[in-house]
Request: fold
Amino acid sequence: MMATKSELTQQLGVVAGFDDPRVDLEQYRTPPELAAHLVHTADLQGDIEGRTVLDLGCGTGMLALAAALRGPAGVVGIDLDPAPLAIARRNEARIATQTPISWIRGDATRLPLTPPEETTVLMNPPFGAQDGNEHADRAFLEQTAAVADVSYSIHNAGSAEFIEAFVADNGGTVTHAFAAEFDLPRTFPFHTENSKALDVEIFRIEWN
Ligand code: SAH
Reply:
């Protein structure tokens, strides 16, 4: 029987975040509750079990590892930065999953691999929150459109119009959209509060 969402949240409590997060790469760890919510929802839709799950911009592995706990055929996490990938490996050992996982250093917008046909992409890509970087998530969506038949992605609130238009232009369909809060601890010097709830939107997209 499928474990509950709160059991998954609990299991993900051991997944460490970034040691020394880079602002240019928008390194923020997804909170365990939000990762569990996303992956539990995906699992209920039949999008995890037995499939290949690809986490684009995996960081320390939160989404990849959440998926690994729900019986996929295999998981691949890819990130530009080797530092969080080393933490992801330690996190993998902590959650003690049997799922085969590959951690790959590379550009998620120019994938160095060809995933199998039944691929689900999960991602919390850079939002382009910093000046001059607007819609950094576009390149991640372009790559997703090329390799996935279904995807779940986290974007900042107010992205719906952009997402709908992009997906329509790329022959896909947004089947689900839900709002969530992303609890952000103080990470960078320009953050003025100890923590802040960021409003985000999660989209399930079917690609053809
Ligand atoms: N998926 C993780 C991390 C999200 S932060 C989580 O949910 O906790 C965004 C991640 O994308 C960072 O780890 C950053 O290093 C990575 N990243 C940014 N641009 C990238 C690119 N072009 N290719 C691969 N990874 C990238």
The chain is about 30% helix and 25% strand. The two ends are 31 Å apart (CA to CA).
